[in-house]
Amino acid sequence: MLYKDKRPLIFFLVPALIVLGTFLYYPFVKNIINSFYEINGLAALDGGKFAGLQNYKNMINDPFIRLALKNNLLMMGFSVVFQVGIALILALMVDSISRGAQFFRTVYFFPVVISATAIGLMFNLFYAYNGGLFNQILTRLGFDPVLWLSDKLGIYMVSLPVIWQYVGFYFVIILTGLNGIPEEIFEYAVLDGVTGIKKIWYISLPLIWDVIKVCMTLAITGALKVFDLPWVLAPNGAPKGLTHFLGTYMYFKTFISQSAGYGAAISVFIVILGLIVSFTVNKLFKRDTIVY
Amino acid sequence: MKRILAVLILLAMTITMFAACSKATPADDTKSPDSSAPSESPANEKVVLRTVSMFGGTDPSAADYQQLIKDFTNANPHITINDESATSDETWKARVTTDFSSGNDPDVVFFFTGADAKQLIDANKVVSLEEIRKEYPDYAKNISEAAMGFMQEFDGKHYAVPVRGFYEGLFCNTDLFEKYNVELPTDWEKFETAIKKFKEAGIVPIAVSFSDVPHYWIEHLILAEGGYEDHKLNPKDTYPESWAKGLSYFKTLKDMGAFPVDVNAIKNDIITNMFYDKQAAMILDGSWIVGGIKDPQTTTVLPVPPTPNGKKDPTDIIGGFSAGFYISRKAWDDPAKRDAAVKFVQHMTSNEAISMFAKVAGAPAADVPAPGGLTPVMEAGIKLGGQAKHIDMPIDSRLNKEAWTYLVSMIGSIADGQATPENVLTEVINKNK
Predict the structure, then answer these.
(1) Residue B22 pLDDT > 50, yes or no?
(2) Contact A239/B at CB under 8 A
(3) For chain B, what are the domain ranges?
(4) Per-residue confidence (pLDDT) for residue B59, from 0 to 100
(5) B45-165+321-360, what's its fold?
(6) Residue among B120, B265, B416 minimizing CB distance to A238
(7) How far is A285 from chain B (nearest CA, A)?
(8) Burial class (CB in 10 A: 0-12, 13-18, 19+), A185
(9) Which of A201, A275, B16, B173 is 20 to 30 A from A52, comparing alpha carbons?
């Protein structure tokens, strides 16, 4: 080791601890305290009126909370099936080609680097009923225009760009995992007559299971935090609050309705839900790691 | 040697961090001025004022406001203005109040009065005129009594200094009315006829977004049904029947096809452009949109007509003075900034400035000569205010934030018949207590 005396290291750790404590742990604890208060208005610096568990009781009776929770669970399902699923298929295909892999890697990863705000605005223009890109294509082809952000389609249309944006992220992770498999294993497999789908099913997938597990965990927990793109694409949960996620609804209640106490209670709920989901996912995907 | 180096790096990091953290607000390290001490800062002392206003983006006064800032800094070279102006919407309002709540108080802010200002007043974040006038007796003396009357807050005091009044009205693209041989909606029957004819012609009759800004229709349908007396209420225990009846017209109008197909999801800026670009015949909005109208020669503005059994006088409108310049407590308590902030507001609310603000949209807050070179739509707007029997402030200046945002969020469901106005208003009353 560089130093025998470890004491100076403490001094290097302390500043980071102070920053984290000030900007993460203190607001977190303060938020939990606020969730037990009725705070109306963001400038209510006196801390509001103590309300006990009232904010949490209100959450049980709030139909938008149930709706937002349902939308988040839906988004988790979409994330696993479509984000990780499509990323896996693309990665397997790109891994099997010998030329142009770098091109596809760049193309599929590109949406990840575009800001969610830009994507939200772009899809907003795609979905516009009058003159939107999708409806222009439909009308040119002789079809009637579609109300994309309708009561029924709204949540799927809002989920679409969220899924689309992050496919590339998981694609790159899985592709890196695939690239890490020693070439000899595939050579032995070919000698044993294992090719095509069998090669993927019996060799590639088991060997990158750890990577897929990480991707699914990230996708599921990420689906809980979804906020920016839906907020830009469909502000205030448009239409009629039907596309609210827990994050957007928390923002709506805190900053638009200015019920800061209630918003704090929703954020505590999001944290608890996040912990439960993370714990469950880790338990669910627990499997022996294959070392090669 | 390495240990010494490590300790030195550590010291540098710690000093940097504490230096950054200790750059607290100037008010923290300066005492409140003694009332007996002269309040004026030395003329050569550099002062930086952070100002926030809604004269940004598409606001018709945005360019004039920037010119006024330029004139002010030219006349007061020791004062630097860091202006953060943006178009006003719910998010902008939330940002301003968040700034105040997080200690990032602007020095001068042009903000709304009424329910929006209450939390700032409750938290002692802004200074009253009565307090300012103890040291600056001429502060806002040029503002008319009528305009200042709108500025009175729940505690009887005045905090904001207005510059221009506003009106809300039904803006109509008169060229479309002529083209399709439709009469202007001067009564409800003509209003319904116009909706039917434009619908048949493939023109969106009324440009509005329920997901973004259905505010004006909420107020006007309640006014059209209940009249001035019912509209001006701030219901705490029970709601007037006329409110429910007024809101029920959302469904009536939607069933007639009065609104865009994607009314529940479209954004307000797209809607406004739809009206500007003649894709929609009518839009209910405020005087601030006048500046953006591309063809002011073929645009006019009318009061929303009373409903068939409505108690509204046909001339009644929603309008008044709903915003003004505030000086924050933080700037007032800072001896270096107090005088600069007062000077800035006095500059922005001078008769010359008020003339500039009023010429594009709304009524002047002081007795200034009528502006010249008005377009037909501007003239119609002035006429609207002049002929009104009653002018009332919008409902959201009275309802609390939670009750109002709930009402706004439920308009789409009322229009689609998925929620009844009665149930929604019952919940509004519960939230407005």
Answers:
(1) no
(2) yes
(3) 45-165+321-360, 167-319+389-431
(4) 79
(5) D-Maltodextrin-Binding Protein; domain 2 (3.40.190)
(6) B265
(7) 39
(8) middle
(9) A275
Asked whether the beta carbons of B400 and B115 are under 8 A apart, the reply is yes
Residues 377 through 406 of chain B touching chain A, CB cutoff 8 Å: 400-402, 405-406
CB B305 within 8 A of CB B221: no
User: For residue B30, what pLDDT band results from cuts at 50, 70 and 90?
Assistant: very low
Same CATH fold assignment for domains B45-165+321-360 and B167-319+389-431: yes
Relative to beta strand B317-320, strand B391-392 is parallel
Nearest C-alpha in A relative to B5: A8
Instruction: Kindly give the pairing relationship between strand B204-207 and strand A37-38.
Output: unpaired
User: What pLDDT digit, counting tens, does each position of B259-313 carry?
Assistant: 999 999 998 888 999 999 999 999 999 988 887 888 889 999 999 999 999 999 9
Cα–Cα dist A188/A190, whole Å: 5
Integer angstrom CA distances of residue A129 from A233, B30, B198: 14, 57, 18
CA dist., res. B358 & res. B147, Å (int): 13
pLDDT value of position A284: 83
pLDDT, residue B367, reads: 84
Residue labelled with tokens 């200002």? B117
Which residues are CB-contacts of B208 (< 8 A; sequence separation ≥ 6)? B214, B217, B259, B260, B263, B271, B283, B284
Tokens of A120: 């939200």
Residue with tokens 């742990």: A25
Residue B274: list chain A partners with CB under 8 A: 130
Res B10 pLDDT > 90? no
* Residue B42: per-residue pLDDT: 52
Question: How far from A197 is each of A92, A93, B223, CA to CA, in Å?
Answer: 10, 11, 70
Contact at CB, A42 and B100, closer than 8 angstroms: yes
What's the CATH superfamily of B167-319+389-431? Periplasmic binding protein-like II (3.40.190.10)
Whether residue A258 and residue B14 make contact (CB cut-off 8 A), yes or no, is: no
At A237 the pLDDT is 94
A225–chain B nearest CA distance, Å: 20
- Check the CA dihedral B144-B149-B155-B156 and report its sign: positive
- B132-163 as b/e: b if 16+ CB within 10 A: beebbeebbebbbeebbebbebeeeebbbbbb
- Whether A243 contacts A234, CB under 8 Å: yes
Which pLDDT does position B19 carry in this prediction?
Answer: 44
- Between A2, A15, A147, which is nearest B262 by CB? A147
The token pair that represents B11 in the structure block: 């010291």
- Label residue B90 by pLDDT band (50, 70, 90): confident
Q: What is the rounded CA–CA span in Å between residue B199 and residue B385? A: 30
B265, B405, B406: residue with CB nearest A234: B265
- The count of CB pairs under 8 A between chains A and B is 121
Tell me: pLDDT of B131 over 80: yes
What are the mean pLDDT values of chain A's consecutive 10-residue runs (292 residues total)?
A: 74 92 94 91 70 95 95 96 95 89 90 92 91 94 95 96 94 94 88 86 90 92 92 93 96 90 96 92 74 62
| Topology adopted by domain A60-284 | MetI-like fold (1.10.3720)
